[in-house]
Amino acid sequence: MKVEIGHGSGGKLTRELIEKVFLKHFNAPELKPLQDSSYVPVNHKKIAITTDSYVIRPRFFPGGDIGKLSICGTVNDLTVSGAVPKYISVGFILEEGLPLEELEKIVESMAKTAKEAGVKVVTGDTKVVEKGRCDGVYINTTGVGEVVRELSPLSSEPGDVVIVSGYVGDHGTAISLAREAFEIETQVKSDCAPLNSLLLPLLEVEGLRWMRDPTRGGVATTLIEFSESSELGVRLYEEKIPIREEVQFISEMIGYDPLYLANEGKAVIVVSSKDAERALEILKSHPLGKDARIIGEVTEDFKGVRLITKIGGERRLELLEEDPLPRIC
Ligand code: MG
Q1: What is the pTM of this model?
Q2: Domains within the chain, CATH numbers bracketed
Q3: Distance from the alpha carbon of residue 79 to the mean position of ligand 1, in angstroms
Q4: C-alpha of residue 132 to centroid of ligand 1, in Å
């Protein structure tokens, strides 16, 4: 067997790779929950640690670039884990021939985003490979955060509600449009943004259970994983899921399901029904959360994710086999 593109999809093949290769040899209990960050004890205090690599194509796209994305992704993975993002390391793999001006633009964008998010880049590494051996620039970022509150899908209960912080599928749509020369005039931009100022206030909401940024694999994959970890089911209501008309239109044209498209500035939040209004109020008071809404509920009636369609039908959402859009982040 060889590595396939689908192994990077965040879906079924990624899962297989994690289970059959990585978890076979890496077996620290801290790794086991397979969440966006791990909680590790340092001097009797817990810190959160996360890492991500960025290989997005193209490097510059409407709404962002690979540099901004690399900071946002790591800030968001710490934030959804209930941690205040603090320090970031940056590793660059550069291809011989990359114009320095372009590298500087990327680094400038990283610095600007880090400043906006209140995180410090404190260490880094640079490697260069020969022309043709990588695609311009790849970036790895690792982040460390101070844990305010540990969140786990296991704390969820039947009757909890599922909230999404805004419109779904923008990043995936913007990238596919930036890549292909479709003759479409569109305003769709990547939603790439650091979410710490939006989400950290939610940690004060008692009934908050769990959060995740639905990046690669989209809202569908995120909730399927939530369901597997929590051993509960999720009922989603299609009519309640905020999807821009343009995103819906373009998805239908290209044959994507927006529920599986990547987002880089959104969160899926599970909260008790009692505290749902309070959580929505907090989200809506922030510009990045003004379109937040309840899209579903947690149930013990079944496992997995079922979508109640606009016409009242029911469809089970499954992990994808293939990667609809490789190199999306
Ligand atoms: Mg994440």
Answers
A1: 0.97
A2: 44-147 (3.30.1330.10), 153-317 (3.90.650.10)
A3: 9
A4: 30
